[in-house]
Amino acid sequence: MSARALTTALLLVGLVAAASAWPKAPAGAVVATARLAAVRNLTTSRGHGRVEFVINGPEPVNGTVSIALNGVMANITMVHIHQRNASLNNPVRLDLVPRTPSAAPVLLDPPYSYNGGLDLTTAFDGARLARWGLSVEEFLFLLKRDKLYVNVHTLSYPGGEIQGMLKCKQPCRFG
Ligand SMILES: *[C@@H]1O[C@H](CO)[C@@H](O)[C@H](O)[C@H]1NC(C)=O
Ligand SMILES: *[C@@H]1O[C@H](CO)[C@@H](O)[C@H](O)[C@H]1NC(C)=O
Ligand SMILES: *[C@@H]1O[C@H](CO)[C@@H](O)[C@H](O)[C@H]1NC(C)=O
Ligand SMILES: *[C@@H]1O[C@H](CO)[C@@H](O)[C@H](O)[C@H]1NC(C)=O
């Protein structure tokens, strides 16, 4: 096999691997994933993780946010989905952990620490989005445009220790 053919073959393997990385989901669901890592140039962290987000719809809008953390992290206080928009101050658009009774961030008490792995998988209820100021349509609009990210807050880094942009599988709308 020539070097070029080998490169092409490896690229194809890579593409297949990337495609199969989408989580299993019912037909017509919206699917997104995020890779969580230390916030570049702002934090150091021995933690990392992966988020798999499956949203069923259009009626009812519900699903699952699978949050698998690895490495080591101390004193996790909150996990949120934020909108990336500096002029709006990157607002929280959904509470994941803990679930709060109103649209105000609440700290885990006591905070979570782990060494190895921690699963923070949680149910998604689209009706909660309105509390944080977005309709389902607005949320999906931002998701499709890479404007939503998952943020893991800790005592050491109250603004977020590890983060990752949610990438939505196209066409990123209910089938
Ligand atoms: C982050 O740090 C790297 C290396 O020090 C630097 O090249 C880069 O410009 C920094 N990025 C930001 C957004 O500050
Ligand atoms: C979403 O809601 C439907 C209908 O109420 C229910 O059957 C389904 O189990 C729910 N899915 C999740 C992931 O909560
Ligand atoms: C969590 O924070 C508390 C209070 O600051 C501290 O005493 C404790 O050592 C921290 N836990 C870890 C695992 O670092
Ligand atoms: C930030 O939000 C404002 C108000 O919704 C909007 O006008 C602006 O285009 C947004 N900026 C970015 C970079 O998305």
TrEMBL record:
- UniProt entry tagged with the keyword Signal: yes
- Which positions fall inside the CHRD domain? 30-168
- Leader sequence segment: 1-21
Q: Which UniProt keywords apply?
A: Signal
Name the domain of life this protein comes from: Eukaryota
Stored SMART domains: CHRD
InterPro entries this protein is in?
A: CHRD (IPR010895)
Q: Looking at the keywords, is Signal present? A: yes
Q: Pfam families attached here?
A: CHRD
Name under which the protein is recorded: CHRD domain-containing protein
Q: Which organism is it from?
A: Gonium pectorale (Green alga)
